[in-house]
From TrEMBL:
A biological-process GO annotation: molybdate ion transport
Occurrences of domain Mop (ranges): 128-197
PROSITE patterns: MOP
SUPFAM superfamilies, A to Z: MOP-like, Winged helix' DNA-binding domain
Molecular functions per Gene Ontology: DNA-binding transcription factor activity; molybdenum ion binding
InterPro entries (alphabetical): LysR_HTH_N, Mo/tungstate-bd_C_term_dom, ModE, Molybdate_resp_trans_reg, Mop_domain, Transp-assoc_OB_typ1, WH-like_DNA-bd_sf, WH_DNA-bd_sf
Organism: Delftia lacustris
Family according to the record: Belongs to the ModE family.
Keywords, comma-separated and alphabetical: Molybdenum, Repeat, Transport
Protein name per Swiss-Prot or TrEMBL: LysR family transcriptional regulator
Amino acid sequence: MMSRMTADAPASPSDLAPALGHDLADRRLAILRHIAAGHSISQAAREAGVSYKAAWQALDVLTNLAGCALVERSVGGAGGGGARITAAGQSLLAMADALEQARAQVLQRFGGPAGVSSAAPGLGLGLRTSMRNLWPCRVGALQAQGAQVRVWMLPDGGGDAPGIAARITAESAQLLGLAPGLPVMALCKATAVQVLPVAPLAGAQGLANAWPAKVQRLARAEGDGPREVVARLPWGGSGVGYAAQQAQGEPWTLRTGRKVWLSVPESAVVLAVAD
């Protein structure tokens, strides 16, 4: 039986549908379009404004989502090698074009400008995730640090509240098209959020966010394990995390209304952008 990952494997629209969650907003389909036009991955990377490595990362993600090969690469020969889009890749682009046309028609019907994302105000409504912490933000600044990028985000409605920092790869920052002012969603698992009785010492938590908060709800304590806490954050949102029953070797009391601190490693914060 032929593997679904081979170039000649048939691909139905339902097979390709998972890859359609990625449109021009994160450049993956844009890279595929450039390959279809220029038959070169390196040229596609240049035209999309990303590195060669990021272009390959985009193709890997799309291929995994589609479940079949979208691009075939040829090596050597009179033309020096190149890349061609497969039949499945052509089908994926045709489906993406049809969806974009339908989206533009819906936006026009309801008074929204075609070509401008209307998803920013409700960016999280289309997300289904196990992560319980979802915070709408806008990118404030990007700081390159070697192969990584530190993304500083300003929570919606935050005013002078402390921001949220995330640490991602340079390729991911390129593919997401991150830039100051871009609406994004910051997400993290509740199990990555540590609830503390006092502010962590600088550097004690490594590269971590630290925000003051006020306890809203407490789960019932079970044995000696950590206790789930829902706390109000400075920008008006809530955060879910876990508090150990002892801090620095001493027991401490949790109660509704108590001031606490939430600590989240920068590497545990995930970013999402609207399609």
